[in-house]
Amino acid sequence: MARKPRYEEPADETDPDEVEEQEGRGRSARKRASHELTKLGEQLIALRPNQRAALALPEQLEEAVVEARRLTSFGAKRRQTLFIGKLMRKLDEDAVAAIRKVLERD
Fold it and tell me: What is the DSSP string of 75-87?
């Protein structure tokens, strides 16, 4: 008696290059963009409160930045920085561009 396969073969086989083109960016490009936003978040943490107020950040992002400044543990700061990067990925491109512009000025 033959064993059942552990998984089903996909019915429609597509070329991996085609899938990447349809979805937009590849995994590496998405990761580079994510790391870039995390670094941008680190720069936000380093800003003084009056400079940060001029950015008009969303409330949740502002709270996360304030919390990151309060933390003293290396691991906690790292986790909070990654969380800030996650919140920044949810922002639209215009908001991220405005943040970059202000940070480049300073």
Answer: HHHHHHHHHHHHH
Non-local CB neighbours of 34 within 8 Å, separated by 6+ positions? 85, 89
Hey, is 92 helix, strand or coil?
coil
Q: Decide if pLDDT at 13 tops 80.
A: no
* pLDDT mean over 67-91: 94
Q: What is the pLDDT of residue 18?
A: 55
Q: Structural domain boundaries of the chain? A: 26-105
Cα–Cα distances in angstroms (integers) from residue 27 to residues 41, 56, 66, 87, 105, in the given order:
21, 31, 31, 19, 31
Residue partners of 22: CB distance under 8 A and separation at least 6: none
Fold classification of 26-105 (topology level): Diphtheria Toxin Repressor; domain 2 (1.10.60)
Structure tokens at 41: 């978040």
Predicted structure pTM score: 0.71
Q: Which amino acid is at 9?
A: E
3 has pLDDT over 70: yes
